[in-house]
Design a protein that fits this description.
mainly alpha; globular
């Protein structure tokens, strides 16, 4: 069987996986709605997915210690994703069945990003690939998935959302079955320990950092769950919605691509302040208007509200004590990007059902609270460009 280079293997796997993710993240709430699920239950199901991913990344992912285990784990996780995404077609409008397949799918889905990133980082450390150049193909595929499914759903109905995501996972399955050349093998035995997360959660600076990121990234909850539904309700076609989601990702990728040039010398405080102001403006606009020109501005602000905050978070983690870096990364992915977004998705579901688009005003207010939280990590070396590029795993 043909054995691709590390760059070919990882970039092609990213293409399949993030094509499917570009379908899932923007359009899954729309598919739930198409099954007759209420807005509050859509929020619960979407939040349940994020909560499950949080649990998976705290419990399952840390058990994959050695690099030799990455490829088998990715194969099993990708196979499970493929099976459970297809199971949605048989759940219909049964909330209990939808909740079950949501949990099973996200238990499989959650570990894929950190495991595939670990593969990329392993080969990057051996100078066999450039992480940023490799990861870029995942971003391109995300845009392709969200664009394609918007057109297909508009032409052929909501079930095309599941079929298109399934096609992406089948492609991922074909790619992950191949062996890269060379295979990932540890040079030396490295003892690994699970991070002491409970100890970090007792430190006030860490709590402030997690709270700040939770406010900024958690403000995206209503956007992830209900922006597609909202924009469709006011008359925008699925094809336009797909283009808008793609525009948001393009803005995010642009900020990461030029972050070293644009933000060199900026303090963490400045990055977090600009991101918080972006949150205030973006969601206030979303609550106020659905004009296409305004939606373009709203989506371009994704580079500010998500990407700049992530850049600042990565810098915070890398400037902290070396002994805390792994644990901080785990907490960052599990709490602000997992558990808190899950909670906010559930709350935004009830809010959207009661207040409609006014729920986005609540998201905007979260940016105001974020303005008043300051974080101060201990001084360390500057963040690497590869680490800054590692951004879309939780978007």
């Amino acid at each position: 069987m043909f054995k691709p280079s590390p760059f070919g293997w990882v970039s092609q796997y990213f293409i399949g996986f993030f094509f499917a993710y570009g379908v899932y993240l923007p359009f899954w709430a729309l598919w739930f709605e198409g099954q007759g699920i209420s807005a509050s239950d859509v929020g619960l199901l979407m939040g349940l997915g994020f909560a499950t991913r949080c649990v998976a990344n705290l419990i399952i992912t840390p058990r994959i210690h050695r690099v030799e285990s990455l490829l088998p784990a990715l194969r099993w996780a990708t196979l499970a994703c493929t099976i459970f995404i297809a199971c949605h077609l048989f759940a219909g409008a049964n909330f209990a069945l939808l909740a079950l397949v949501t949990v099973l799918f996200n238990l499989s889905f959650g570990p894929v990003v950190p495991l595939s990133d670990a593969m990329a980082n392993h080969y990057s450390g051996k100078q066999m690939l450039d992480y940023g150049r490799t990861r870029l193909w995942g971003s391109v595929a995300f845009v392709g998935g969200s664009t394609a499914v918007g057109y297909l759903a508009a032409q052929f109905g909501a079930n095309m959302i599941v079929y298109t995501a399934l096609a992406g996972f089948i492609l991922s399955m074909l790619f992950v079955l191949r062996n890269p050349n060379p295979m990932p093998i540890s040079d030396t035995h490295i003892a690994t320990q699970r991070p002491k997360l409970s100890l970090l959660l007792r430190e006030w600076p860490v709590v402030k950092f997690l709270a700040l990121i939770a406010l900024i990234q958690g403000s995206h909850a209503a956007y992830y769950s209900f922006s597609s539904i909202y924009w469709k309700e006011v008359g925008h076609p699925e094809s336009l919605i797909g283009y808008l989601w793609s525009l948001g990702v393009i803005a995010e990728v642009a900020v990461f691509a030029f972050s070293k040039r644009w933000f060199n010398g900026w303090s963490l405080r400045s990055l977090f302040l600009i991101s918080s102001l972006g949150v205030i403006v973006r969601w206030a606009l979303t609550a106020s208007t659905t004009e296409v020109y305004a939606l373009v501005v709203i989506q371009l602000l994704h580079g500010v509200t998500f990407a700049m905050a992530h850049i600042a978070a990565i810098q915070y983690i890398q400037k902290s004590d070396a002994s805390k870096m792994v644990a901080l990364q785990a907490l960052y992915n599990a709490i602000p990007l997992g558990a808190f977004i899950a909670l906010m998705m559930a709350l935004s579901g009830w809010g959207y059902e009661l207040w409609g688009a006014n729920i986005f005003w609540a998201m905007s207010i979260m940016g105001i609270f974020a303005l008043f939280i300051k974080v101060e990590p201990s001084s360390r070396a500057p963040v690497s460009s590869d680490a800054i590029s590692d951004h879309e795993a939780q978007n």
